[in-house]
Amino acid sequence: MVEPLLDVRNLRIEFPTRRGALVAVDDVSLSIAPGEVLGVVGESGAGKSLTGAAIIGLLEPPGRIAAGAIKLAGLRIDNLPYDDMRKIRGREIGAIFQDPLTSLNPLYTVGQQLIETITTHLNMSAAAARTRAIELLESTGIPAAERRIDHYPHQFSGGMRQRVVIALALAAQPKLVIADEPTTALDVSIQAQIISLLKKLCRDHGTAVMLVTHDMGVIAETADRVAVMYAGRIAEIGPVADVIHRPQHPYTAGLMGSIPSMVEDVERLMQIDGAMPRLTAIPSGCAFHPRCTRAIDRCKRERPDLMPAGTSQAACWLHDTNSLGRAA
Amino acid sequence: MAAILRDNSPIGQAESAGEIIVKAEGLAKYFDVSAPWLNRVLERSGRQILHAVDGVSFKIRHGETLSLVGESGCGKSTVARLLVGLYTPTRGRVEFFGRDLAEMNTAAGRSLRQKLQMIFQDPYASLNPRWRVEDIIAEPLIAHGLMSDKVKITARVDELLHQVKLSPADRQKYPHQFSGGQRQRLSIARALATKPEFLVCDEPTSALDVSVQAQVLNLMKDLQRELGLTYLFISHNLAVVHHISDRVGVMYLGKVVELATRQLIFSAPRHPYTRMLLDAIPDLEMTGRSRTPVAGEVPNPLNPPSGCTFHPRCPHANARCRSEVPALHVVRQADGIAEVACHAVEEGRI
Q1: How many domains does chain A fold into?
Q2: I need a labelling partner for B150 at 20 to 30 A (CA). Which of A115, A220, A299, B196 fits?
């Protein structure tokens, strides 16, 4: 077994309020091997973006890591001082966010932003950094890169801007990229271009990716493994084909069934009644039990941890070996 | 009472053989996006006209769902707004039950307006945050003077809430007390208040999570069957369109480039743009498979390419495509008829 590049253990993220702490992410453990693409899916409020933000140390106060540890290549990074974390961010971990317009500074040219990133993290002269910046822009498929490097972000279209953001994220050749909904703001035809670009560049450089999205289609196409999150916890984690075609957790099964298919004709979509619970009212036991059609008594009382289920791991009592008869 | 009568109407009418209730003919909407007069004089620049919708024609039969798909800026939402009279067309006309929609603002046309309603994309912006649910849903009833008796209005609101699977107890609540999916149900309840025949749905599920989207789509299909509704469904999500539509129109830069039954669009797409769109969709079946992404982006609609606006991205473009604008023409296929605006298809090159 290769040593994981990123190892998150029992991560818990809290938001302190006057009426006690709200737990947004609870007991999340995951690891990413070098060069691996881990997809993280879930509906809004599942805690997927917060998990990503915690890893790059960009959790916005008052949100804070209340427990757990994040290790990058064996080194603990969740408790580093601000300045040390700045050196890791961009150098070791790159970030791509949803909105390409807000992740670029509108007052600086694309080139200035790229050169700044390169000279900050790599020991390079300004001239060498500019050459490297042009190379980066070319590798992300921006036409006429020597000319475009002196343009401002507003002069680029949405798809082109996202290419610039990818170039920025990969500028210092990080080992890990956190991509938070990188294609959500883009049109489908552009989305396809960006996904294949991200896949190609990361494969070429051996960069591991944590791809956070709500779009199962993007995950299906890109990820090696996928973690399904629900109400701040991982409901199921496993190889992408297994999770999609043989979901082990009732929530994953419902999620897959509610995605309209372009291949089959169904009169009604499978639907999960109700909505994700609010953070202030997370149900006891398994947080999914009020919406689950297969819930048993135990689900209301005890909270399940991840347990082996086929080739995946699922946090569901149906897979508990002691009640195996019920699961089958 | 009327709702009970509707339930007794034969469901078979909801087939595509129904009468044509909406007809758009050469519909166009231009927006003047010029700089202010002084700037134009100082910079010696001319007026800039955005052709948001440029000559769109279609018919919708009773009980069917026509979907318009396309990428952002293709004019699909503008068509939706033209159809409910939120915009007045620059050219062309919309007929609704054989009457011109332009009459709608006259006193005689008011009854027409009750028959068509709209559901908007953003369930947060389309409900007044300071109004209670009962006021929001009763508003169309009062505005159209359909009901004035408080007891009757309350009964109708309860009935509508029940139809969209919310509880009558929700009547007293404010919009912020509901989740996104529930708010979209409120929008649907409000749209149904005047017992419309035709609903224009502008991306009704794109702000929702997939499991909630499934709830709303199921509800919309149920309501269509129960009430014999006709939908114009606007979406950029092809999977959703595949699920809900009877016929699909694909739009590109203000024009419909292909119009056909759902089966034909998805199984035998003819226009190169439709093929490209279908190819670009990531699908659950495609685990690990890489697909060939399409090059290029949607051109600036202020300065669209000459001829067929798709030609810079089209692998089949030739000199004719660059100079001559293709019109929709009928293409007969083994299992149906499609309308396609493409020179290459017309000439039999593809």
Answers
A1: 2
A2: B196
